[in-house]
Recover the amino acids of this structure.
């Protein structure tokens, strides 16, 4: 408990310093579930943007009802568009390096988020995603709109248990 | 025939082969299509299910079991020594479990290329592993590092997890080998399909090759039959050529034979005529008469055959000339009048008073044939010829007789070659029987029709219709110039006879002798040319076919030397082109063989010198020029002679008319030459002057003629020259009229 407190204080101090330094991105109030680093201009941490669920929920929410190899039948995922998220943190680059909790990583070309309504889902059928349910965040491609994406390459890019994103310049 | 049948059989076999191979090709293509569709279907079926990689999923699960095991171990070894580390390790351990949890739930799913839902060992293990991991959840959630039994609980979990490490490893190995097998099976299936496709392709290629070969064979056959056809065409073309050659040979044979027959016939007729000139008595006279008649008949027959063979060549001259039909009627009346009167028949020829454009020679020939026939087959009564214009553009002539008539049966054969109505008639009436056939060919050749209406013993009416071009009414016959009387007695002339045949020469010599002329003889063209070098006769009678040098060549040599002595060709060839050849070589006229006194008289009169020959002095064009330049006094004298001759021959009225006409021609000359002055058209001037010179000399006006001739050598002429010529001509006319007045 003490440990958690110390971490929280330290984080708040760091974030406050970051906010004072540069930009308008507010500091997270809840547990940080996503850190965006790399070619990011709007930060709230040391050269990175740390986000909690509330900040993600504040962005426009998109729904994708799709069939995936990891669930039975069609499931409805919801969350912000990756492109909106990138705009929020002022990120611009050639690709996204999306890294999972278990250090699984995949590279998404920038086109994948600018051309398609690719979302970073935080909810499945309205329920928050737990780690056991491959949460907290799940990259979901619009397979229902683009059946041509139904192949191993895009399955590989559909990273789940997303923890960090590095924006490659 | 057999070959053709074999070809047809071969062709149908070929067709069958092509059809069979085409069916094979179509079936093959169909089978290939099916296989291809199968392949597509299989792929589509695979794509329909969204799949993940099973090996990857199992590997991840295996990895996270090991990771969880590692954290459990870490926590149990550390025991409760360091609270802080425990808490960090605990959080990591929990995350590790959560991730493992999310991983194992996937293993129960069927969305892998490698099916994990079946009954195999791998599938069984997957289910058990999944159940074990998810079953740990309550124990994991219950863990609390603050709990005194925490380490013991973690150790217990570690012990429970331990055997699953081996299981997951085993699963990984199994999945890997199963995937490999699946890949192999897949590859084999594809290989199978590919092999089948390859076979189909091979069959297809073979089928197309077969079709290609059969087509090639067919093409070769077609080419061969085309060749055969070309060969047949060539053969029939040659046959046609041979037939044409045979036809030409026949015509040539006829022409040659006619010539060969005419030459001895010439001798016969000439001799008979000579004999008839001598006094003959009693039976000899009758025999001579029979001889002459037979010879004449023979000549007619040969003429008919010649004519017919000429028509056989299909060459009827379409040449048309302005013809006075009434005048032609009068001519025919004159020609047949005596014959009809002698037979006690009336002959009435009534052709329309009309001038038309028609082939007058041929029209006359048809009329002569029909009238001659009618007279021949009529014993009492008469022959009536009536003509009229039908629709303005056809001349219809009917020749009606009171003769023996012709039955309907005979009428059918009437216009055919050599078909005199029967043998008895032929004997009784004579003739070649070609007359009507020739007439029919002529009339039809000129685009007309010919026919007959007749009944036995009631006479016949032969009719024909010919296309003509009407030109208007004929001149009144009263206005016609009286025909020129034959001048008698004849003035003796020097005649050079060029003839290699002794009989012919004898005949001609005797005739000329009888007519009072002097004869010199040359045996061939070369001799004639030699003689003419020192002798200038009044006329040369030139045979055509002679050894050494023929008549045409001799004439050319004579003309080339500048001698203008009249040369008359004596030819047995009746063809037009022979006559044209005569004139082209420079001959002035021609005389048909066999030579008769009448024919001789006509030709000799035509070329009789216009004035007495001055002894043996050579007459040449140079001398004529010189005399034209002589004094007016001399001209007058010469003119006197010429005009006197003409007056005697033609009568003063006729001469006056001729002088009037000449005066008119002077006016015409002024117009026609005047038109050429500006253009300096030498050719046109030469033509006009030549014509005028001829007219002037005919009337003995050598002053005008001389001037005209002189002007011809200084073309083109000018205004002054024309004025001089006109003045001379007008003076000549005045003098001629004065002289004529003094004579009458």
């Amino acid at each position: 408990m003490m440990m958690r407190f110390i971490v929280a204080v330290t984080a708040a101090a760091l974030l406050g310093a970051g906010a004072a330094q540069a930009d308008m991105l507010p500091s997270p109030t809840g547990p940080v579930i996503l850190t965006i680093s790399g070619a990011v201009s709007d930060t709230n941490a040391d050269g990175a943007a740390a986000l909690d669920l509330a900040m993600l929920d504040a962005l426009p929410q998109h729904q994708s009802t799709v069939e995936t190899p990891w669930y039975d039948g069609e499931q409805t995922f919801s969350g912000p568009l990756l492109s909106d998220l990138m705009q929020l943190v002022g990120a611009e680059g050639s690709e996204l390096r999306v890294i999972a909790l278990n250090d699984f990583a995949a590279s998404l070309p920038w086109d994948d988020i600018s051309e398609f309504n690719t979302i970073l889902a935080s909810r499945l059928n309205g329920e928050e995603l737990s780690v056991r349910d491959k949460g907290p965040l799940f990259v979901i491609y619009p397979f229902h709109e683009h059946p041509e994406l139904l192949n191993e390459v895009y399955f590989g890019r559909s990273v789940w248990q997303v923890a960090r994103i590095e924006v490659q310049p | 025939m057999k070959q053709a049948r074999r070809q047809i059989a071969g062709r149908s076999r070929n067709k069958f082969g092509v059809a069979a191979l085409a069916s094979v090709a179509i079936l093959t293509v169909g089978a290939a299509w099916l296989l291809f569709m199968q392949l597509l279907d299989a792929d589509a079926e695979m794509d329909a299910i969204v799949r993940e990689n099973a090996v990857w999923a199992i590997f991840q699960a295996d990895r996270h079991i090991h990771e969880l095991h590692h954290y459990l171990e870490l926590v149990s070894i550390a025991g409760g020594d360091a609270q802080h580390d425990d808490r960090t390790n605990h959080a990591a351990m929990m995350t590790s479990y959560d991730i493992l949890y999310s991983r194992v739930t996937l293993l129960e799913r069927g969305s892998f290329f490698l099916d994990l839902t079946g009954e195999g060992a791998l599938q069984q293990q997957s289910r058990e592993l999944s159940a074990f991991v998810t079953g740990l959840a309550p124990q994991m959630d219950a863990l609390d590092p603050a709990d005194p039994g925490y380490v013991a609980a973690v150790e217990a979990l570690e012990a429970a997890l331990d055997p699953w490490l081996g299981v997951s490893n085993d699963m990984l190995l199994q999945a890997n080998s199963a995937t490999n097998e699946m890949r192999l099976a897949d590859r084999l299936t594809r290989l199978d399909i590919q092999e089948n496709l390859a076979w189909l392709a091979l069959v297809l290629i073979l089928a197309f090759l077969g079709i290609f070969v059969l087509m090639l064979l067919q093409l070769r056959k077609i080419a061969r039959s085309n060749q055969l056809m070309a060969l047949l065409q060539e053969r029939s073309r040659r046959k046609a050529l041979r037939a044409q050659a045979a036809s030409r040979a026949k015509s040539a044979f006829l022409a040659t034979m006619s010539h060969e027959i005419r030459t001895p016939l010439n001798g016969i007729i000439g001799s008979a005529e000579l004999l008839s000139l001598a006094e003959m008595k009693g039976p000899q006279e009758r025999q001579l008469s029979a001889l002459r008649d037979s010879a004449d008949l023979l000549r007619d027959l040969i003429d008919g055959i010649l004519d017919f063979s000429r028509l056989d060549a299909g060459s009827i001259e379409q040449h048309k000339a302005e013809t006075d039909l009434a005048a032609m009627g009068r001519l025919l009346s004159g020609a047949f009048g005596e014959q009809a009167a002698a037979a006690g028949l009336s002959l009435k020829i009534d052709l329309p008073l009309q001038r038309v454009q028609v082939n007058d020679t041929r029209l006359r020939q048809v009329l002569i044939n029909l009238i001659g026939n009618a007279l021949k087959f009529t014993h009492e009564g008469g022959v009536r010829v009536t003509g009229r214009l039908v629709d303005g553009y056809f001349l219809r002539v009917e020749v009606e007789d009171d003769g023996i008539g012709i039955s309907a049966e005979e009428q059918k054969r009437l216009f055919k070659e050599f078909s005199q109505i029967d043998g008895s008639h032929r004997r009784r009436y004579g003739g070649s029987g070609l007359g009507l056939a020739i007439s029919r060919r002529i009339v039809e050749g000129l685009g007309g029709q010919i026919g007959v209406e007749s009944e036995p013993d009631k006479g016949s009416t032969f009719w024909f219709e010919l296309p003509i071009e009407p030109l208007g009414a004929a001149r009144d016959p009263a206005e016609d110039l009286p025909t020129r009387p034959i001048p008698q007695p004849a003035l003796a002339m020097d005649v050079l006879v060029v003839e290699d045949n002794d009989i012919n020469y004898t005949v001609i010599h005797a005739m000329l002798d009888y007519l009072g002329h002097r004869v010199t003889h040359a045996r061939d063209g070369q001799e004639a040319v030699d003689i003419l070098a020192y002798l200038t006769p009044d006329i040369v009678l030139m045979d055509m076919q002679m050894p050494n040098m023929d008549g045409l060549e001799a004439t050319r040599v004579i003309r080339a030397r500048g001698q203008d002595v009249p040369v008359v060709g004596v030819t047995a060839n009746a063809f037009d082109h022979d006559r044209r050849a005569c004139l082209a070589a420079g001959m002035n006229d021609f005389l048909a063989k066999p030579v008769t006194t009448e024919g001789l008289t006509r030709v000799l009169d035509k070329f009789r010198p216009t004035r007495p020959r001055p002894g043996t002095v050579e007459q040449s064009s140079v001398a004529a020029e010189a005399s034209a330049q002589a004094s007016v006094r001399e001209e007058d004298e010469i003119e006197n002679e010429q005009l006197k001759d003409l007056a005697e021959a033609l009568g003063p009225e006729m001469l006056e008319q001729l002088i009037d006409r000449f005066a008119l021609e002077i006016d015409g000359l002024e117009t026609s030459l005047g038109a050429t002055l500006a253009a300096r058209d030498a050719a046109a001037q030469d033509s006009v002057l030549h014509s005028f010179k001829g007219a002037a000399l005919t009337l003995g006006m050598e002053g005008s003629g001389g001037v005209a001739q002189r002007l011809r050598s200084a073309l083109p002429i000018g205004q002054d020259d024309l004025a001089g010529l006109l003045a001379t001509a007008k003076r000549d006319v005045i003098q001629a009229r004065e002289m004529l007045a003094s004579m009458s």
In short: Residues 476-490, 611-639 of chain B have pLDDT under 50 and may be disordered. The interface with chain A takes residues 47, 50-53, 60, 64, 67, 84, 87, 95, 98-99, 101-102, 105-106, 109, 111-112, 137 of chain B (CB under 8 Å). The longest helix of chain B spans residues 150-277.
